[in-house]
Amino acid sequence: MEIATNSDKTEKKSLNFVEQLIEEDLAQGKNGGRIQTRFPPEPNGYLHIGHAKAICMDFGAAERYNGVCNLRFDDTNPSKETTEYVENILNDIKWLGFKWGHIYYASDYFQKLWDFAIWMIENGHAYVDEQTAEQIAEQKGTPTTPGVASPYRDRPIEENLRLFRQMNTPEAVEGSMVLRAKLDMANPNMHFRDPIIYRIIQTPHHRTGTKWHCYPMYDFAHGQSDYFEGVTHSICTLEFVPHRPLYNKFIDFLKEYDGTAKQALDDNRPRQIEFNRLNLTYTVMSKRKLHTLVDEHLVNGWDDPRMPTLCGMRRRGYSPESIKDFINSIGYTKFDALNDVALLEAAVREDLNKRATRVSAVLDPVKLVITNYPEGKTEQLDAINNPEDETAGSHTISFSRNLWIERADFMEDAPKKFFRMTPGKEVRLKNAYIVKCLGCKKDANGRIVEIEAEYDSESKSGMAGANRKVKGTLHWVNADDCVKAEVREYDRLFSIENPSADDRDFRELLNPNSLHVYTNCYVERFAAAMQPGQYLQFQRTGYFMADPDTTTEKPVFNKTVGLKDTWAKQNKK
Predict the structure, then answer these.
(1) How many helices (H) and strands (E) does the chain have?
(2) How much is the pLDDT for 468?
(3) Cβ-based burial of 409 (10 A; exposed 0-12, middle 13-18, buried ≥19)
(4) Which terminus of the chain, N or C, has less C-beta within 10 A?
(5) Could you give the CA distance from residue 138 to residue 141 in angstroms, rounded to a whole number?
(6) Which of 67, 404, 52, 98 shows the shortest CA–CA distance to 229?
(7) What is the average per-residue pLDDT within 74-100?
(8) Is 277 one of the catalytic residues?
(9) Signed CA dihedral, 248, 253, 258, 264: sign only
């Protein structure tokens, strides 16, 4: 699987292949010119960026062609599904900026699907099998050898009906029986070899409680639900290509069950279209693996900013617009690819540059004392909120004799091309004055604890004649009027490029340095008041957002992404 990089990006056509197929259907007058899509998540976990690609397609296609996209929860497995997941799926879709027409649940159709299954049994299209899952799997054969018929395949219809009804009782034992469609055990498509369509689950359902004890399988519920709702285009990912004939076969049965004419079948059949999944480097998308990360406390919950979940990205500070821009840039194809996560970060960086408020923060502070600045004096200076947005306005920052600057911005014995603070050289303090470094003080261990400088009182930013050239500009915060904060900086969650393709336990591939916490940071008071959801740029450092852990006494910020992509360069050394 090749990695897509910026150099791979070419100009996209105005229509992707899915939209081209939709336009063909519209041109042929199918479905009366009506467009209806659906996004059908299973509420067994939180949505991740891979789901966002499907959301953008399902909702985007409906918007483009003046149709409707409905939301349908595929809640056919109560042992894994909860209302918590339902609520978070709703929140994530709204955060991305999409609106659904209606909300449906597969459980809305449990009675219809049950009645349809009864009809299939009565018409010789389904039977109850009492073999174990292992026996059924073994008898299915291989793609090149036909399967072997179940010994229960030809049991009498009345016995099948009795046993099927018995499956839906509190006494039924999970795994003791399943209902299988009677199709073709020699079909080269393994999904056609008498697929299981109902199984026993005794876990109460989050919506229907204990009314049902027997639940339909995804392949049996999905196409029928599309048909019940009037879906015209069922858009899904490539792994469902081999499922498509079964999808159509069950709809054929359903049409026969409904007594619908063949012409109506041809004109109004939901059309399944498949596109490639979204895969990212240094990331896993498997819900099973994401569950493991959360359940085993390898991350700090579903919304950990290192997770590929939408709530994790929201907490980290990604904007919904940047995610949609990224998805649009990589496009939709019929071929799987591994996309470089740097492409996503570039989209985030580009979007936040236009919307983030510029503030000052010092992550690794060292004291700077302006020795000739009057003691006790404080000035209020003007700071532009965003130079990319004239409407963003400005805010005030305070300046005094005592400041904090980044420790990395000072070197006592600096090389020639070090344009930051060093003894005898001048630098400009952002939005303030030009200062000349005089030297530094050290503790008993030789660690620098204070830097001394003197300022040029005629060099204040914006002052007439204050624009003489100096090569370095440093950010700072007023040590007498700032707020101590915690800053969390994130790296790749996994240490290898494609953890999903590695045979080792994925836990072994986690990056032990994926989180670094700075506990002795200082931010300007204006920044300390920012709330989650407000995009910030810490000048010269990167983009940040306040974390929900923030309190009045202790602001906490997450680093969203750096100002430049330095990760690839660092890891090529």
Answers:
(1) 15, 28
(2) 78
(3) buried
(4) C
(5) 6
(6) 67
(7) 96
(8) yes
(9) positive
What's residue 11's pLDDT?
41
Cβ pair 129, 178 in contact under 8 A: yes
Rounded CA separation 533/356 (Å): 11
Check if 428 is active-site. no
What is the rounded CA–CA span in Å between residue 76 and residue 65? 31
pTM of structure: 0.92
What does the alpha-carbon distance between residue 151 and residue 546 come to, in Å, rounded to a whole number? Answer: 63
Could you list the beta-strand ranges (E) of 201-326: 214-216, 233-237, 271-275, 279-280
Q: Which of 112, 165, 287, 354 is catalytic?
A: 287
Nearest to 45 by CA among 7, 87, 76: 87
To the nearest 10 degrees (0 to 180), the angle between helices 320-330 and 49-64 is 80
User: Which entry of 34, 42, 354, 436 is annotated as an active-site residue?
Assistant: 42
Number of C-alpha atoms within 13 angstroms, CB side, residue 23? 8
Measure CA 9 to chain center: 22
The answer to whether 113 and 121 are in contact (CB under 8 A) is no
H helical segments located in 103-217: 110-122, 133-139, 157-167
d(CA 345, CA 339): 11
Which pair of tokens denotes residue 358? 């510029």
pLDDT of res. 74: 96
Mean of per-residue pLDDT scores for the chain: 93
Q: Is 287 a catalytic residue?
A: yes
Q: Which of 277, 407, 425, 540 is catalytic?
A: 277
